[in-house]
Amino acid sequence: MNASFEKFHHKYTKERDAIRKVRAKMTPQISNLKKSIEEDVVLSAKLSTVWTSSPVNTKEKLQNLVFPNGIIYSKKEAFQTEKVNSFLPWLLTQKKIQGKIKKGQTG
Prior knowledge:
By secondary structure, this protein is mainly alpha-helical. It has two domains: 1-30; 31-107, no CATH class. 67% of the residues lie in helices and 4% in strands. The chain is built from five helices and two strands, in the order H-H-H-H-E-E-H. It has helices spanning 3-26, 33-45, 47-53, 56-66, 87-103, and strands at 72-73, 79-80. Strands 1-2 form a two-stranded antiparallel sheet. A hairpin with a 5-residue loop joins strand 1 (72-73) and strand 2. The radius of gyration is 23 Å and the shape is elongated. The model has no long low-confidence stretch (mean pLDDT 76).
């Protein structure tokens, strides 16, 4: 093989492996993803109740989960946010579908 290829192949293979190790450390490992999602869905369904009955530190965690970019209080005495956790719109859709199924409505 070409000497340049060997030189650069070895160099970039080492760099790639180093990057993969760093990424592996940064990526959270969830041993039971399905169970975690199910627990999050249950929590989300009771979000209002959990919020009301929780201490301040739990409320802060929930707020950061639901509004990852935070909440802004505007001069017009209204709360605003730039971003909502992308899981919430999906969850609301699922709750509406489940509500229709329970009422016997389809489509």
